[in-house]
Design goal:
Layout: E1 3-5, E2 9-10, E3 13-14, E4 23-24, H1 25-32, H2 40-44, H3 47-60, E5 65-68, E6 74-77, H4 79-89, H5 91-105, E7 112-114, H6 117-156, E8 165-167, H7 168-175, H8 181-190, E9 195-201, E10 207-214, H9 215-228, E11 230-231, E12 236-239, E13 245-248
Antiparallel strand pairs: 1-7, 2-3, 4-6, 5-6, 8-10, 9-10, 11-12, 12-13
Helix pairs in contact: 1-4, 3-4, 4-5
Organism: Chromatium okenii
Domain KilA-N: 4-104
Protein name: KilA-N domain-containing protein
Length: 251
């Protein structure tokens, strides 16, 4: 079994190129001999890399970074991006990569042949491992983005009630109509007024999960409660919603 290879080779490692001429960054990393701290995923997280990729895409009007899953997959990048990544690894590696790419484009590279089937299988195995690692990087990145969004939502609801809502105490103060707190919240419970959870930062420094009412729901509930109440004396009402329980309120 022979595997003919006319792709660019750096430090004995062939660099796959996709149909759009983008180079495999995972193969470049392997050719550099550096550890995981110089992996493509680490570089792509930096602000410098993100700004550079954005600038190249704007200039070339091309998609400069793609992720390919499965066999022979990985992160493929536009030549300018690949060279920039190589420079991030080391200046000397950048020179070597740049010259190899130039020779490859000009057709000056000599074809190499992998005649040992064991080595050929090993190369393909390494490419599959790189593909799996790249998928893990994508999963980690998406997880980080999700965690960031959750944290932002929590911060919006921290140390205060969400906009348009009232806490239990606020609801009682603003719409309690003279009822005791116990009777007021019992009425809301009987009327099945929906609640929404939020995080409250207590005085002892701990975060406490609590809930709030939508203010418009409170107003509607109070109106329903009073409409159903029966005036029994000048200052006393009786509520069917509270199983005939009486409370001080003059309609």
């Amino acid at each position: 079994m022979e595997t003919n290879n006319t792709l660019p080779v750096i430090a004995g490692v062939e660099i796959p190129v996709d149909s759009e001429g983008r180079y495999n960054l995972n193969a470049l990393h392997r050719a550099s001999g550096e550890g995981q701290n110089k992996a493509p995923g680490q570089w792509l997280r930096t602000k410098q890399a993100q700004e550079f990729v954005s600038a190249v895409e704007k200039e070339t009007m091309q998609i400069c970074i793609v992720s390919v899953e499965g066999r022979n997959g990985g992160t493929f990048a536009h030549e300018l991006v690949a060279v920039e990544y190589a420079g991030w690894i080391s200046p000397s590696f950048r020179i070597k990569v740049n010259q190899t790419f130039i020779d490859y484009r000009n057709g000056k590279l000599q074809p190499t042949t992998i005649t040992d089937p064991i080595i050929a299988a090993l190369v393909h195995g390494l490419m599959e491992i790189d593909g799996i690692k790249q998928q893990q990087v994508v999963i980690v990145r998406k997880t980080e983005q999700l965690e960031s969004r959750v944290e932002q939502v929590e911060l919006q609801h921290r140390n205060g009630v969400p906009q348009g809502y009232l806490s239990r105490s606020q609801a009682h103060v603003l719409h309690g109509i003279g009822l005791s707190s116990e009777v007021f919240h019992l009425a809301l419970h009987q009327l099945e007024v929906p609640t929404t959870p939020y995080i409250h930062h207590a005085e002892d420094g701990n975060d406490v999960a609590t809930f709030a009412y939508l203010e418009s729901d409170i107003a509607d509930a109070v109106r329903t409660f009073l409409n159903d109440a029966i005036q029994v004396t000048r200052c006393m009402c009786e509520s069917p919603l509270l199983n005939g329980r009486r409370f001080r309120y003059s309609k």
